[in-house]
Amino acid sequence: MLTRIDLLKDWNVTGRHSERGYDLQDSVKLEYPAPANAVGWYPIGFERGNDSALEAMDWHALKLRIRTRAEQTEISVKANFADNRSVAARPDLRARRIAGI
What we know:
By secondary structure, the chain is mostly beta strands. It has one domain. Helices cover 4% and strands 26% of the residues. It has 1 helix and 8 strands, in the order H-E-E-E-E-E-E-E-E. The strands form 4 sheets. A two-stranded antiparallel sheet has the order 1-4. Strands 2-3 form a two-stranded antiparallel ribbon. The protein has a two-stranded antiparallel ribbon with strand order 5-6. The two termini are 31 Å apart. 0% of the residues are buried. Residues 97-101 have low confidence and may be disordered.
């Protein structure tokens, strides 16, 4: 089972990038990279599968690590579900200095 994803390497990223990273002031968007030949929903017996989405059925958490030079950074996370629901989160983040960064 997939337990870790490097979103910047494994997903589609849009935003202004420089040698120092992405400019968060203008926003950065990360999206799951559906394969070029994906068909979306397809039947599997009495169930359905989707080859355009990440299988995260057994996941119980999402942990993000963000390194920023600014003391304030706003992030939002949005996940879409099979039944067309979506959930968005804007966590309360407090800047934390990490030695060596």
